[in-house]
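Example with several molecule types.
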Amino acid sequence: MIYLDHAAATPISKKVLKKMEPYFLHDFFNPSAAYMPAKKVNAKYEAAKASIAHTIGAKSSDLIITAGATEANNLAFTAIKKPQGAKKVLYLETEHDSVRQIAQKYGGEKIKVHSSGIIDLNDLKNKITDETELISIALVNNEIGTIQPLAEVSAIIRDVKIQRLKKGIKTKLLLHSDASQALNLIDINVARLGIDLLTMNSAKVYGPKGVGALYVSHDAKLNPIILGGGQENGLRSGTENVPGVIGFAEALEEAKKHLASNRKKYATWKKVLLKELHDYELINKKHTLDNFIVICYNRIDAERLIFLLEEKDVYVSTGAACAASKGVRSHVLKAIGLSDTQIAGSLRITLGETNDESQIKKAAKIINEVVEKERERIKNAG
Amino acid sequence: MPAKTHPSKNPKTVFVGMSGGVDSSVSAMLLKNQGYKVVGIYMKNWSEDLPGMKCPWAEDLADAKRVAVKLGIDFEVWDFEKEYKKRVVDYMLNEFKAGNTPNPDIMCNQEIKFKLFYEKAMSAGADYIATGHYARIKTISNHPALLRGIDEKKDQTYFLYRISEESLAHTIFPIGEMTKPEVKKLAEENGLHNAYKKESMGVCFIGEVGIKDFLKEYIDINPGEIREIESNNILGYHEGVIFYTIGQRHGLYLNGEKGKINDGMPYYVVKKDIKNNIIYVSKNLNHEAIWTKTLELKDILLRSSKLILNPAKNYPVMVRLRHLAPLVPATINGKFLTFKEEIKRPAPGQSAVLYEDEECLGGGIIC
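Resulting structure tokens for the full complex:
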């Protein structure tokens, strides 16, 4: 099997699994219970949480553990006071659905991107009003891997904040960023980047699924979506997912160790892949993580390629998590100005830890063959 | 079935309706193996989600496409949503509002699959269309006769009795000679992933949410009384006459005890008074509203020359009153069916489909 869809899901390492195991089998206690074994589990949980927080330069008490990134994104938007009424939210038009849907519910306005996928900072400046409370921009786009210049965004936000204070406007302005795709390849420091709310996701960084976190700065005041026993500072009730958090922390620790070497590795593989492939157009040319490669085959239906490649045991996707099973065209590829036929012909390849260089070469060969065959079929049909 | 062709000599073109299910997938495969030039078409008839129910159209489409790719055939999506809403859903809603119980699958075949799809396929260069229905076609004195599928447990002619003769003359039912287990086995042997797919129940949204929930999306509930027909006593209340069917005994709210009063015997709906929004029920299983020996039909469609040439009196037929219900003997005389023995009265709006041996002679809508 050659798996080239690491932006969709990643396997957990044996080491991570091993770290998690005791918390399923022996140390299964509810961290809130009063007796010593449970207290020990609680201590391990807090330590893991602290370790997760440290990877982004934060403290344990700044983190709210959630059941994944979607929940964290939804929770971030509760920072908006009185959600109804004036437009208080700005979000990048290429955001993941879990941001778009909730942003639209709050009457959010879209910020445009350039054809490179990079945020149009002028559009951002023009759209910020005195009412704007939250701006949501993913650090790395989940379809094309574009890395957004968040430091520049927060510089703009800082200027707006100064202007507001000058004018005596009390409204807060927060920056939220979904960093799901970035945690294992970009060194993130929330303070340095000026981020108030940061979404983290275990499932994309070789940790267990169903675990995520939201970093919350002291400027942001949230309203819980899930009420109950008051866990996570009362902001996310429900018994703690101890093995999940232990696994997440371990996965991040491993990722941190190999951050630089992994980036170098993916850059090399990307070069190899792009050299070996034939007759394609590279869609995400600039400012992207090297493990995201989006290529377009003119006049070919990429969804057909997915199924044809599956038969050769090669697994890729189209723009979104799989446009084929959602029935919609990728809003990201549309936002960067691709035509409908270009979108239909676009394949997303995301490299990762299950790969090696020989696999990349083999995959390129198989993709070339499949595309060639598909072109032949179209020629004969037409 | 039309003569088989050979790949080398100008193969005939067949457009296959592919739903993503195992039946239409195997149909497409069989045609391909028989040497036809096959084009797979996914008919997008409905895509709207309903509260608590996600319409699976996009997954079905992906399933169909996956099979098309595996077979190496062309594949297209044809959007019939507007027409389906107009010709099937609106018809259905209007019938319900009139107090009838229509069958949307019959209407879908008549108006969409064997009309719109057929016409579009023909103008796109098809020689034939094909679907994964369990039914057969035999040419009898130059007319295409509709025969029941070999698998009596799956026969779908009940849903097909209203399709036009012209479309039937250009239709292939590739799996009509097979049983469902054979179809599934063939799918498994050929690596068609949807061999294991859950079977869809008629129109997707109705199968999943139930017709009553679907109707409630479009028609407001309208509470009214439930009265016992014999005593005229009020026994309980209902959500609107149109949501109930004659003969129904579930979902009645009778003074706190669902469908049961005192002796525990169930009440049945025996009469619907649309005008006054009253439902009449009875415990008497022998009530005349439940049992009958005759039925009057409307919108009769006769597809066999046997009946058309014999408008004479009392032609003996076998009748099916629901999909896969047992065949019961009767005679047809103009628009009246007379049964040999009393039958449980079907709801008005349902179809009575007529057979002689394995041939579907046509049918009509019950008044």
